Amino acid sequence: VIKININLPERSYPIYITTGFGDLESCFEHAGIEGKVAVITDENVDRYYSQKVQLELENAGRKFFKYIIKPGEGSKNLNTISGIYSFLINNGFDRQSSIVALGGGVVGDIAGFAAATFLRGVNFIQMPTSLLAQADSSVGGKVGVDFKNCKNIIGAFYQPKFVYINVNSLKTLPARELKAGLAETLKHGLIIDENFYEYIEYNLEKIFYYDIDVLQHITKVNCRIKGDIVEKDEKESCLRAILNFGHTIGHAVESMSDFKLLHGECVAVGIIGAYKMARYLGMVSEDTVSRVIKTVERIGLPVYIKGLDIEQVYNQMFYDKKVKKGILNFILPKRIGEVIICSVEDQTIIKSVLSEIIK
Ligand SMILES: NC(=O)c1ccc[n+]([C@@H]2O[C@H](COP(=O)([O-])OP(=O)(O)OC[C@H]3O[C@@H](n4cnc5c(N)ncnc54)[C@H](O)[C@@H]3O)[C@@H](O)[C@H]2O)c1
Ligand SMILES: [Zn+2]
Known about the structure:
The chain has 13 helices and eleven strands. It is of the alpha/beta class. Strands 1-2-9-6-5-3-4 form a seven-stranded mixed beta sheet, sandwiched between helices. A two-stranded antiparallel ribbon has the order 7-8. Helix 3 (78-90) packs across helix 4 (105-117), helix 6 runs parallel beside helix 10 and helix 10 (263-280) packs antiparallel against helix 11 (286-299). The longest helix is centred in the middle third of the chain and has 21 residues, at 212-232. 47% of the residues are buried. Bound molecules: nicotinamide-adenine-dinucleotide (NAD) and zinc ion. Zinc ion is lined by residues 184, 247, 263, 267.
């Protein structure tokens, strides 16, 4: 078991990186958690992993409950939350009880929001099973749901008691989802750690063969990078914004494509956009841009998308959280492994970049 600590002013917590579910009970004990446990999962993940988790916990004498939601972003709303509240009340959940998120980022965000709000907060445990969730969403404490077509607009900062990552669970993850998760992984290297970027570049084939040592290493570095940034800026005032690298364009593309593309796929396109924009502004060389494009292509992620309207994507970007006084702010690369926040006012540059990634 690899253990990483996330140190926050009010409450610190560990991330355990493992290759099975056998250490789960000792993590519960170490966190001093007693009481009922509700595992929230989705239909896909339930099929593979609920039973193993249930066995571990019941063998230790814990009262186990399970709530299964439909997979996908469509479940990330207040109706699902309302169903969970009823379930918890009907089963007599109290302040000592715990909610476990067993699944991808959708399950994590939903279960975390339920945990943050039920009885003003009950114990929350993250057991992420997708690469995106293991690399990104399970670390940092952002939880929430969508509301009336607005993504993640209702939510809270709520840190888990611990995060339990079984990297072996990635073996059942569909290849397209694995690649989408790699977009955020690659992002971590690109924003702050050139060695990590090179490690991913070098070990791509092993990742696709689910090499456990490589996956464990990647998960460890992912959590450490995201953890370091969150430790320095828990509530996203400034530094944490660099995690949005590739997301200004990525989010706009994601909403305009009616959510047919996966989040990671849109982030990949957004990352290429950021490199191209930095190239326009003379911040990086053409060679660097080509190198990143090549890595993204080798992963099997898109470097451009078809069928969108450039004007519409441009307008959509102004809904971004980082828009200040009507000026777009982009996180742009200075090199591989370093980014800075830049406000870009020149419409022609932005639209030229968009025309290169929207075909
Ligand atoms: N809270 C945050 O900081 C944060 C950060 C990034 C993304 N997110 C959110 O995360 C969500 C996306 O997460 P995601 O990509 O994990 O999506 P997801 O939860 O929908 O999972 C993707 C698909 O993979 C399936 N799946 C998950 N693990 C599996 C496994 N081990 N084996 C087989 N199938 C498995 C799921 O059932 C689903 O169909 C979005 O809602 C996004 O807003 C949150
Ligand atoms: Zn993202």
